[in-house]
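User: Could you check the structure of this?
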Amino acid sequence: MSANGNDQGGPTVSAADQTPLGSGFGARSEPHEVLDGIDLDGATAVVTGGYSGIGLETTKALAAKGAKVVVPVRTPEKAAENLAAVDGDVVSHQMDLADLASVRSFSEAMNADLDSVDLLINNAGVMATPERRVGPNWEYQFGINHLGHFALTNGLMPLLEAADAPRVVALSSVGHLRSGVLWDDIHFENGDYDKWVAYGQAKSANALFAVELSNRMEAFGGRAFSVHPGGIFTPLQRDLPVEEQIMMGWLDEDGNPSELAQAAFKSPSQGCTTTLWAATSPLLADKGGLYCEDCDVAPMVGPDSPRGANVAPHAVDPEQAARLWALSEEMIAAA
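Assistant: Sure, the predicted structure tokens are below.
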């Protein structure tokens, strides 16, 4: 395993790095295509939110290729129902990203039960929620999407270190284009709450997390990536009123998927393929911290970028990534 990482953090991503690799896959690729020829027998994967939406599709695909998949679950009854028909070695364990004690308990159980974790897929999340608080008055979306996964990943670090070339995939979103990290008011304690700005901040945090995490994992041959899965109708939209989705053009006046959505949105299985590609592609073996979309590395956003595509410089900036890591450590320690 590689031992040339810098535990203190450092530059890992540049505009030159954020260059598509010509993977041969695209927006409509299916899991069986990106996993063709990938052997996951004997591998262990942890997939948060792995019993709903694209998380469930991720679980199915990994289990079908021979991986043991551990799914942390907040609602065991729903998880049992959704996972019952999944073929393969799939187990679930109680955990709630909004509850750090629960995250720590899950991590302790995994460290006791598993020898290693080869793939950690930080898939679970919330989007554009009404203003809510979690933990020690943390803004809800930042608390769940970023801080919960930050605590989980660090709790599982011994198991990642024990694996051969482990990978962590953080689910970001094109929503990161709406906002970088609001360094002066991350938890909206001073300014007015904006659910979409809060979502954008959380998704930028997910991408920055992958940048610094990959740098730290390099010491033991690991890699981390962030991904934009694409537009998909899943339970992620549960907090969005139908009227708002109609206004955004996602639904028609009858509440059905609009022509725009039918043309642009992916199916749940297509929505998990960039995650699977980032988790397994040999093309990424010597890379790390990159933001991916449509089963390839995404270019930096520019004047010619398609609407709602590519990655903003603020989301892959190494200095901001290191700053966020240090700040997150302080928040978790004080919680």
